[in-house]
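Progress note, project year one: complex with fe (iii) ion.
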Amino acid sequence: MTESEIREKVKSALKEKRFQHVEGVVETADRLARKYGVNPEQARLAAWIHDYCKEWSEEKLVQVAKELGIDDSYFEVTELLHGHIAAEIAPQEFGIVDPEVRNACRYHTSGRANMTLLEKVVYLADAIEPGRDYPAVEDIRKVAEEDLDKAVALSMDNTIEFLLKRRLPIFPLSVVARNDLWRKQK
Ligand code: DGI
Ligand code: FE
Ligand code: FE
Ligand code: FE
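Model obtained:
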């Protein structure tokens, strides 16, 4: 599929507002990729597909995850399934087989230990695209211009704080990712 075919397919799977978010992630990922020496085509592709399954029902996400053999531990935190499933179905749905692109999609919500630059760029673009509005976003945007790792680490802290305040479950991989990035700051 060409990029514009991928764009149209994603557009038809999402509500207008979420599609605008995706377009913001694509442009931000492209810009961050150039800034930090990442392949912008890979960044754009991962950004286009990252929320392709975001509007599926929880039932559908869990059912498809079971069919695909995705690890059971993900089912407790279903917020993490949409990226994982999009990565799994990317070859059939979009002809995207590049494992680096698929991993950037797969880990865009939790992150993981030893993230690649591409994974960090997509993670951060998702958090700071122009449509995002939450108290810490301006700080994270500022740091994103200077230090990729620090910006990703700040974004992960912000997500974990948000989850703690709401007494929501924190996926172990989210904590592993956060610890890994801060450890490397020093
Ligand atoms: O899909 P988006 O809204 O663009 O962004 P996302 O995929 O980064 O995050 C989706 C949601 O997942 C968001 O509300 C935060 C939440 N989330 C991220 N990490 C965790 C989490 N939710 C739980 N319960 N546990 C996590 O570790
Ligand atoms: Fe997402
Ligand atoms: Fe995110
Ligand atoms: Fe997103």
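The mean pLDDT is 97.
The pocket of 2'-deoxyguanosine-5'-diphosphate (ligand 1) is lined by residues 21, 51, 54, 77, 79, 83, 108-110, 126, 159, 163, 168-171, 174 (CB under 6 Å).
No further modelling is planned for this target in the current period.
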